[in-house]
Amino acid sequence: MQPLAIEVRDLEKAFRIPTHRVDSLKERAVRPFASRDYRELRALDGVSFEIHQGEFFGIVGRNGSGKSTLLKLLASIYRPDAGRIRMAGRMAPFIELGVGFNPELTARENILLNGVMMGLTPTETRQRLDRVLDFAELHDFAELRLKNYSSGMMVRLAFSMMLQVDADILLIDEVLAVGDAAFQQKCADAFHQMKAEGKTIALVTHEMSTVEAYCHRAMLIDGGKIRHIGDPGDVGRRYIRLNFEREREAVEAPDPDSSDRVRILDARVEGAGGERLEAVEQGTRIKLGLDFEVTEELAEAAVICSLANANGVEVLRLGTKVEPQEGSSHLRPGQRIEFRAELDNPLASGRHYVHCSVNDATTQSVLLHLHGCIDFVVFGGSEGVVVDLPYEASAEVEDGGGL
Amino acid sequence: MSTAQSPPAELAAQPHELREVPGPSALGGGWRRFADLLWLMASTEFKRNYFGTVLGYLWSLIRPLLLFAVLLFVFTKVIRLGSGVPNYPVLLLLNIVLFTFFAEATQNAVTSVVSQESVVRKTQFPRLVIPLAVVLTTFFNLCINLLVVLVFILAWGVDPSWTWLLFFPALALLVTFTVAVSTLLSVLYVRFRDVLMIWAVFSQVLFYGTPVIYPVEIVPESYQHILFANPIAPIFEQIRVWVLDPSAPTATEVVGGWVGLLPAAGIFVAVAVLAIWIFRREAPRIAEEL
User: Domain segments of chain B: what residues?
Assistant: First the structure.
């Protein structure tokens, strides 16, 4: 195990949000004793973790979870209320790319200024000027003012600037989706090189694919507390589940009248032989199994399942009516609904989620809605598309009749 | 996991020790970086103003010269304020150039920290650099303008004297006061947004409360004391005596001895101390308040 690069112990940070903000001297002078009530927002609440040297560490969380506050505390931009942060080695003093670029200045001037902001000396910056421009492929535009740059050029400049910083530890907030495909590849290479050089990077992002592609470990933070630290894939799954939970609470609050009339018992994806699966091969037969329990009498219900990919696109929807048993007019409490669907897996490669809902078929009200109640990975199919269906295609080469 | 990779040689050779992070501050990042940043920010801004556009420098010269021309006309032809004052036109020019420095630096400094918001919120940046860079840029400008003034003074026929050297300590005092006021205003503005307007008015008051356009001897004696509680008034007066008009009353003569200068000195020191104290106190929190 490598020695520690960053050690965080019991970190706390709260922001005081005044209920009535006094933002003029006049107001303060006229009412010197005006109420100074404030609401305390606990952005970080007892956070402890360690990052080892040479590690790429992902920090994931929803907006307002405290992840950016954490990064700012690490970067000495905010001061912690309690707890301590220790670091080994030199830290790059910025958390976002291209901070402090002045649109009125030329690229060359901006590089010189920015280099010093990032902790280089003016001489070092001048020496690296060419390397920055080379990497960004902007040599021909060195004397162009930044305000005339396209956003892609700007990002390229910012990224290559970052690569020239001599820091052992880099803290980066949301950056990697930059430039065209060729430049993306260059960035990826640069990252792998930084990895190889043993630099330590803490990366805050929403983008789970970035975390999975680059990070050794990741941390999920929510409500100012650490929810999980571990394998990036695992953190990614928890993050998405957390998102779905919240979304359900916020948007799809079930009808108060009808809540708890149905309860979920089990949800799973099975292979052809009935074995539970977390990874499913493209094109094979799969079964979705969802078991519910009826807790209050219902006339008629419908179960609807949708399969969505990691980008939130609903790929397909499957559903069926649930009718009472023969000779009965209602679904009775204690009865189980066993929903089964079988299909040849048409999904393209990648992570997928099953959302399901149970509706009252007569009133159409939602009895139960579960976002992401199952998640599974599809492998062996095409990537970057939504579905992957069997097809036949051919291309023949024939001699033309010309000669 | 990282264990899978072999540690790079230099890392293994000299493992870094865990050290407490410093947290945000007014000077954070060491003096070297502070000085580099200050110089670069001020000089790039200066270059941008004066070499970016064709009329850049000319324009910055035209403004005080135009004001000078207007005031010269008004006070020598219309109100005859300057009659009997030796070297009045060049005195007026020098005073205007000096006061323009003070007024411009402080006025630009007010919003400086807030306008550099992204830098403050996203980098570990010595906060004090921001208002200081504004003052420094304006100071560069002042230096060039002073050269122009020097040409005017020599052309007017003022004889060089050894007392001209005393101009520099006086200027240093003016710059120090400008720095103190600028620093104070820039950090107050983060919290209180009416500081900008208040200062615009206050700066105007100071313009008339300093012997810039009129010689101090025409002010009724009972008011001269009040006038010289303004810390920059004695500075302007001494510059006049040393550079242009040895016959003019010195600052101590105006207020009747050294004791009379105590209010001005007291305010000077108070502003400086207040600026340092408030900036140090607020610097770690600026990023949160923005």
Answer: 26-209
Contact at CB, B122 and A96, closer than 8 angstroms:
yes
Distance from the B284 Cα atom to the nearest Cα atom in chain A, whole angstroms: 6
Full-model pTM: 0.71
Written as six digits, the tokens of B277 are 């104290």
Give the position of tokens 């001048």: A126
Through-space distance between the first and last CA atoms of chain A, rounded to whole angstroms: 72
Contact A95, A71 (CB under 8 A): yes
Q: In angstroms, rounded to a whole number, what is the distance separating the alpha carbons of residues A174 and A68?
A: 10
| Contact (CB<8Å) B192/A23 | yes
Q: Is the dihedral of CA A164, A165, A166, A169 positive or negative?
A: negative
Distance CA A254, CA A263 (A): 12
Q: Are strands A314-322 and A262-270 parallel, antiparallel or unpaired?
A: unpaired
Question: What domains can be seen in chain A, in order of their start residue?
Answer: 255-379 (2.70.50.60)
Selecting from A53, A95, A100 the residue whose C-beta is nearest the C-beta of B11 gives: A53
**Best residue in A6, A16, A117 to probe B by mutation, most B CBs within 10 Å?**
A117
Q: Kindly report which listed range (B23-32, B35-44, B50-59, B79-88) carries the lowest average pLDDT score.
A: B50-59
Indicate yes or no: CB of A23 within 8 angstroms of CB of B2: no
Query: Phi then psi for A75, rounded to 5 degrees?
Result: -85, 10
> Is residue B254 within 8 Å of B237, Cβ to Cβ?
yes
What does each C-alpha distance from B203 to B76, B209, B267 come to in angstroms? 25, 9, 16
Q: How far, in Å, are A252, A268, A355, B258 from residue A248 at the CA level?
A: 5, 20, 11, 77
Query: Hey, what are B146's tokens?
Result: 């002073």
Let me know: does B195 contact B185? Beta carbons within 8 Å: yes
pLDDT at residue A372 tops 80: no
Say yes or no for a CB contact (<8 Å) between A76 and B287: no
Q: Select from B88, B290, B116, B92 the least CA-distant residue to B207.
A: B92
* Whether the predicted pLDDT of A254 surpasses 50: no
Distance CA A51, CA A153 (A): 33
How far apart, in whole angstroms, are the C-alpha atoms of residue A114 and residue B193? 29
- The least confident of A99-103, A142-146, A221-225, B108-112 is A99-103
Mean pLDDT of A125-151: 86
What amino acid occupies position A339?
Answer: F
The one-letter amino acid code at B258 reads: W
How many C-beta neighbours within 10 Å does residue A315 have? 14
Backbone angles phi, psi at B71, to 5 degrees: -65, -40
